[in-house]
Protein backbone atom coordinates (compact mmCIF):
# COMPACT_ATOMS: atom_id res chain seq x y z
CA UNK A 1 0.00 0.00 0.00
CA UNK A 2 3.00 2.28 0.32
CA UNK A 3 3.50 2.67 -3.41
CA UNK A 4 0.12 4.31 -4.23
CA UNK A 5 0.71 6.71 -1.36
CA UNK A 6 4.21 7.48 -2.56
CA UNK A 7 2.94 7.95 -6.12
CA UNK A 8 0.14 10.22 -4.95
CA UNK A 9 2.60 12.28 -2.92
CA UNK A 10 4.94 12.53 -5.91
CA UNK A 11 2.13 13.65 -8.19
CA UNK A 12 1.00 16.23 -5.65
CA UNK A 13 4.56 17.56 -5.33
CA UNK A 14 4.89 17.75 -9.12
CA UNK A 15 1.61 19.63 -9.43
CA UNK A 16 2.69 22.05 -6.73
CA UNK A 17 6.04 22.61 -8.42
CA UNK A 18 4.35 23.20 -11.78
CA UNK A 19 1.99 25.70 -10.17
CA UNK A 20 4.93 27.55 -8.66
CA UNK A 21 6.82 27.71 -11.97
CA UNK A 22 3.84 28.19 -14.30
CA UNK A 23 3.91 31.49 -16.19
CA UNK A 24 1.72 34.22 -14.82
CA UNK A 25 -1.37 34.97 -16.93
CA UNK A 26 -0.94 37.81 -19.38
CA UNK A 27 -2.82 39.54 -22.15
CA UNK A 28 -2.39 38.33 -25.73
CA UNK A 29 0.35 39.98 -27.76
CA UNK A 30 -0.33 42.41 -30.62
CA UNK A 31 1.66 42.82 -33.83
CA UNK A 32 2.28 46.13 -35.54
CA UNK A 33 3.87 46.33 -38.98
CA UNK A 34 7.18 48.18 -39.45
CA UNK A 35 9.62 48.53 -42.34
CA UNK A 36 11.79 45.83 -40.75
CA UNK A 37 9.17 43.26 -39.90
CA UNK A 38 6.51 43.08 -37.21
CA UNK A 39 6.78 44.74 -33.82
CA UNK A 40 5.30 42.39 -31.23
CA UNK A 41 3.77 44.14 -28.23
CA UNK A 42 3.41 41.92 -25.15
CA UNK A 43 1.70 43.55 -22.17
CA UNK A 44 3.11 42.25 -18.90
CA UNK A 45 1.72 44.21 -15.96
CA UNK A 46 1.25 47.82 -14.85
CA UNK A 47 4.01 49.83 -16.60
CA UNK A 48 5.89 46.82 -17.97
CA UNK A 49 5.76 45.74 -21.59
CA UNK A 50 8.00 43.57 -23.77
CA UNK A 51 8.70 44.38 -27.42
CA UNK A 52 10.12 41.95 -29.94
CA UNK A 53 11.36 43.46 -33.19
CA UNK A 54 13.95 42.64 -35.84
CA UNK A 55 15.26 39.70 -33.82
CA UNK A 56 15.71 41.81 -30.67
CA UNK A 57 13.78 41.82 -27.40
CA UNK A 58 13.20 44.96 -25.34
CA UNK A 59 11.95 44.90 -21.74
CA UNK A 60 10.40 48.09 -20.38
CA UNK A 61 10.39 48.54 -16.59
CA UNK A 62 10.59 44.81 -15.73
CA UNK A 63 8.50 44.38 -12.60
CA UNK A 64 6.18 41.93 -10.91
CA UNK A 65 8.42 38.89 -10.56
CA UNK A 66 10.33 36.77 -13.06
CA UNK A 67 7.35 34.41 -13.55
CA UNK A 68 5.60 37.19 -15.46
CA UNK A 69 8.26 36.82 -18.18
CA UNK A 70 8.27 33.01 -18.43
CA UNK A 71 8.55 31.80 -22.01
CA UNK A 72 9.77 35.14 -23.37
CA UNK A 73 13.19 35.64 -24.91
CA UNK A 74 15.89 37.16 -22.73
CA UNK A 75 16.21 40.92 -23.22
CA UNK A 76 18.73 42.58 -25.50
CA UNK A 77 17.74 46.01 -24.14
CA UNK A 78 16.13 46.99 -20.85
CA UNK A 79 14.60 50.45 -20.49
CA UNK A 80 13.94 51.74 -16.97
CA UNK A 81 12.06 54.99 -16.50
CA UNK A 82 12.34 55.83 -12.79
CA UNK A 83 13.57 54.84 -9.33
CA UNK A 84 10.23 53.74 -7.87
CA UNK A 85 9.77 50.04 -7.15
CA UNK A 86 7.22 49.49 -9.90
CA UNK A 87 9.85 50.56 -12.45
CA UNK A 88 13.20 49.72 -10.89
CA UNK A 89 12.62 46.26 -9.38
CA UNK A 90 15.94 44.58 -8.47
CA UNK A 91 14.17 41.41 -7.32
CA UNK A 92 12.61 40.89 -10.75
CA UNK A 93 15.89 41.72 -12.50
CA UNK A 94 17.68 39.15 -10.34
CA UNK A 95 15.30 36.42 -11.51
CA UNK A 96 15.72 37.17 -15.22
CA UNK A 97 18.50 36.33 -17.69
CA UNK A 98 19.75 39.86 -18.20
CA UNK A 99 23.46 39.20 -18.71
CA UNK A 100 23.49 40.25 -22.38
CA UNK A 101 21.15 43.22 -21.97
CA UNK A 102 22.07 46.87 -22.42
CA UNK A 103 20.31 48.80 -19.66
CA UNK A 104 19.21 52.29 -20.72
CA UNK A 105 18.37 54.34 -17.64
CA UNK A 106 18.39 57.86 -16.19
CA UNK A 107 21.20 58.75 -13.80
CA UNK A 108 18.98 58.40 -10.72
CA UNK A 109 18.28 54.77 -11.66
CA UNK A 110 21.96 54.08 -12.43
CA UNK A 111 22.80 55.30 -8.93
CA UNK A 112 20.46 52.72 -7.39
CA UNK A 113 21.11 49.69 -9.59
CA UNK A 114 23.00 46.82 -7.96
CA UNK A 115 26.72 46.96 -8.70
CA UNK A 116 26.62 43.78 -10.79
CA UNK A 117 24.82 45.65 -13.58
CA UNK A 118 27.08 48.71 -13.77
CA UNK A 119 29.01 47.50 -16.84
CA UNK A 120 25.75 47.10 -18.77
CA UNK A 121 24.38 50.57 -18.07
CA UNK A 122 24.04 53.43 -20.52
CA UNK A 123 22.79 56.63 -18.90
CA UNK A 124 20.53 58.91 -20.90
CA UNK A 125 19.31 62.25 -19.63
CA UNK A 126 16.24 64.09 -20.86
CA UNK A 127 16.85 65.19 -24.44
CA UNK A 128 19.60 62.66 -25.16
CA UNK A 129 19.37 59.77 -27.62
CA UNK A 130 21.12 56.51 -28.37
CA UNK A 131 21.39 54.49 -31.57
CA UNK A 132 21.82 50.79 -30.82
CA UNK A 133 20.92 47.44 -32.42
CA UNK A 134 19.21 49.14 -35.35
CA UNK A 135 16.91 51.25 -33.18
CA UNK A 136 16.95 54.76 -31.77
CA UNK A 137 16.12 55.45 -28.12
CA UNK A 138 15.33 59.06 -27.17
CA UNK A 139 14.86 60.11 -23.54
CA UNK A 140 12.21 62.73 -22.87
CA UNK A 141 10.95 64.37 -19.68
CA UNK A 142 8.35 62.86 -17.36
CA UNK A 143 7.21 64.76 -14.28
CA UNK A 144 4.33 65.99 -12.15
CA UNK A 145 2.48 69.30 -12.38
CA UNK A 146 2.75 71.71 -10.73
CA UNK A 147 6.50 71.25 -10.50
CA UNK A 148 7.61 71.02 -6.88
CA UNK A 149 10.63 69.62 -5.02
CA UNK A 150 8.40 67.19 -3.10
CA UNK A 151 6.42 65.95 -6.13
CA UNK A 152 6.41 62.17 -6.64
CA UNK A 153 8.20 62.70 -9.95
CA UNK A 154 10.45 65.72 -10.35
CA UNK A 155 11.55 67.03 -13.73
CA UNK A 156 14.84 65.55 -14.90
CA UNK A 157 14.93 62.55 -12.58
CA UNK A 158 13.11 60.04 -14.79
CA UNK A 159 12.80 59.35 -18.48
CA UNK A 160 9.94 58.79 -20.82
CA UNK A 161 11.21 57.21 -24.03
CA UNK A 162 10.54 57.41 -27.75
CA UNK A 163 11.79 54.40 -29.68
CA UNK A 164 12.19 54.39 -33.45
CA UNK A 165 11.77 50.81 -34.62
CA UNK A 166 11.75 50.27 -38.36
CA UNK A 167 10.27 53.69 -39.03
CA UNK A 168 7.64 53.47 -36.28
CA UNK A 169 7.85 55.87 -33.33
CA UNK A 170 6.81 54.31 -30.03
CA UNK A 171 6.27 56.54 -26.99
CA UNK A 172 6.47 55.28 -23.41
CA UNK A 173 5.19 57.90 -21.00
CA UNK A 174 6.66 56.57 -17.78
CA UNK A 175 5.14 58.39 -14.79
CA UNK A 176 4.05 61.80 -16.00
CA UNK A 177 1.24 64.29 -16.24
CA UNK A 178 0.13 65.91 -19.50
CA UNK A 179 3.25 68.02 -19.67
CA UNK A 180 4.12 70.35 -22.53
CA UNK A 181 6.83 67.97 -23.77
CA UNK A 182 4.28 65.18 -24.19
CA UNK A 183 1.72 67.43 -25.87
CA UNK A 184 4.40 68.60 -28.32
CA UNK A 185 5.30 65.11 -29.55
CA UNK A 186 5.09 64.65 -33.32
CA UNK A 187 4.76 61.59 -35.50
CA UNK A 188 4.02 59.09 -32.73
CA UNK A 189 2.67 55.85 -34.17
CA UNK A 190 2.19 53.95 -30.90
CA UNK A 191 1.86 55.44 -27.41
CA UNK A 192 1.72 53.91 -23.94
CA UNK A 193 0.14 56.44 -21.59
CA UNK A 194 -0.20 56.23 -17.80
CA UNK A 195 -3.25 57.28 -15.77
CA UNK A 196 -3.15 56.50 -12.06
CA UNK A 197 -3.94 58.95 -9.29
CA UNK A 198 -2.42 60.42 -7.20
CA UNK A 199 0.91 59.72 -8.89
CA UNK A 200 0.36 60.66 -12.53
CA UNK A 201 -2.74 61.73 -14.52
CA UNK A 202 -6.43 61.20 -14.18
CA UNK A 203 -8.40 59.86 -17.14
CA UNK A 204 -9.36 63.31 -18.45
CA UNK A 205 -5.79 64.63 -18.29
CA UNK A 206 -4.52 61.58 -20.14
CA UNK A 207 -7.22 61.89 -22.79
CA UNK A 208 -6.56 65.58 -23.38
CA UNK A 209 -2.81 64.96 -23.58
CA UNK A 210 -3.33 62.20 -26.14
CA UNK A 211 -5.69 64.39 -28.18
CA UNK A 212 -2.94 67.00 -28.32
CA UNK A 213 -0.25 64.78 -29.85
CA UNK A 214 -2.55 62.36 -31.73
CA UNK A 215 -0.75 59.02 -31.81
CA UNK A 216 -1.96 56.47 -34.33
CA UNK A 217 -2.43 53.83 -31.63
CA UNK A 218 -2.60 54.36 -27.88
CA UNK A 219 -2.50 51.81 -25.10
CA UNK A 220 -3.61 52.99 -21.65
CA UNK A 221 -1.20 51.33 -19.22
CA UNK A 222 0.00 51.93 -15.66
CA UNK A 223 -3.60 52.57 -14.59
CA UNK A 224 -3.63 51.12 -11.08
CA UNK A 225 -3.77 53.84 -8.41
CA UNK A 226 -4.63 54.17 -4.75
CA UNK A 227 -8.34 53.64 -5.43
CA UNK A 228 -8.04 50.68 -7.76
CA UNK A 229 -7.99 50.66 -11.54
CA UNK A 230 -8.68 53.78 -13.58
CA UNK A 231 -11.66 53.83 -15.95
CA UNK A 232 -9.88 53.11 -19.22
CA UNK A 233 -13.20 52.62 -21.01
CA UNK A 234 -14.02 56.25 -20.22
CA UNK A 235 -10.60 57.24 -21.55
CA UNK A 236 -11.32 55.46 -24.83
CA UNK A 237 -14.77 57.07 -25.10
CA UNK A 238 -13.40 60.56 -24.45
CA UNK A 239 -10.58 60.18 -26.98
CA UNK A 240 -12.74 58.69 -29.73
CA UNK A 241 -15.58 61.16 -29.30
CA UNK A 242 -13.06 63.85 -30.20
CA UNK A 243 -10.92 61.90 -32.69
CA UNK A 244 -12.15 58.63 -34.17
CA UNK A 245 -8.85 58.09 -36.01
CA UNK A 246 -6.92 57.29 -32.82
CA UNK A 247 -6.93 53.52 -32.25
CA UNK A 248 -7.38 53.15 -28.47
CA UNK A 249 -6.40 49.61 -27.50
CA UNK A 250 -7.65 48.41 -24.14
CA UNK A 251 -5.68 45.44 -22.83
CA UNK A 252 -5.72 43.72 -19.46
CA UNK A 253 -2.53 44.83 -17.72
CA UNK A 254 -3.59 43.25 -14.41
CA UNK A 255 -4.64 39.67 -15.32
CA UNK A 256 -3.41 38.18 -12.05
CA UNK A 257 -5.90 40.39 -10.18
CA UNK A 258 -8.91 39.15 -12.17
From TrEMBL:
Pfam families: Lactamase_B_3 (PF13483)
Keyword field: Signal
SUPFAM superfamilies: Metallo-hydrolase/oxidoreductase
Signal peptide extent: 1-19
The keyword Protein transport is annotated on this UniProt entry: no
Origin: domain of life: Bacteria
InterPro entries for this protein: RibonucZ/Hydroxyglut_hydro, UPF0173_UPF0282_UlaG_hydrolase
Name of the protein: MBL fold metallo-hydrolase
Amino acid sequence: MKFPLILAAALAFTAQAQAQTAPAPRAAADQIATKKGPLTVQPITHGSVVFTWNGKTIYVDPYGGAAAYAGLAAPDVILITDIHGDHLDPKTLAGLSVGKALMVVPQAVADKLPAEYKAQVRVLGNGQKLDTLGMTVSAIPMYNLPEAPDAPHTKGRGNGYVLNLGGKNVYLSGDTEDIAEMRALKGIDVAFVCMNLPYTMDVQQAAQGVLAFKPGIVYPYHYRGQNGLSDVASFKKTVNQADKKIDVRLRNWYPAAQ
